[in-house]
Fold this sequence. Notes:
Blueprint: H1 13-30, H2 35-42, H3 46-53, H4 60-69, H5 87-113
Helix pairs in contact: 2-3, 2-4
Amino acid sequence: xxxxxxxxxxxxxxxxxxxxxxxxxxxxxxxxxxxxxxxxxxxxxxxxxxxxxxxxxxxxxxxxxxxxxxxxxxxxxxxxxxxxxxxxxxxxxxxxxxxxxxxxxxxxxxxxxxxxx
Length: 117
């Protein structure tokens, strides 16, 4: 199907569901697979496959089963994220570490000056 220039923010929920259904149908046809065969491989019934291909809502777990059966789980790669901090947060953390080190040095110096009287 290739990359499209769809602007999902301007699409209604129903239009997005229909777009997903078109992707499923296109991929199934490209693999020369019938709805019945896809239903059997995904563990769903043919009616469910037909529903999504016609733009009807289905459950997320059904969609995942269909994507798995079509060997298309790669579409979920867009959901990957990494736990990176922003440069501003990094600078704040560095500043806190420096302050912490300075406090520790000062408290050690005060212990040496204290004669215990």
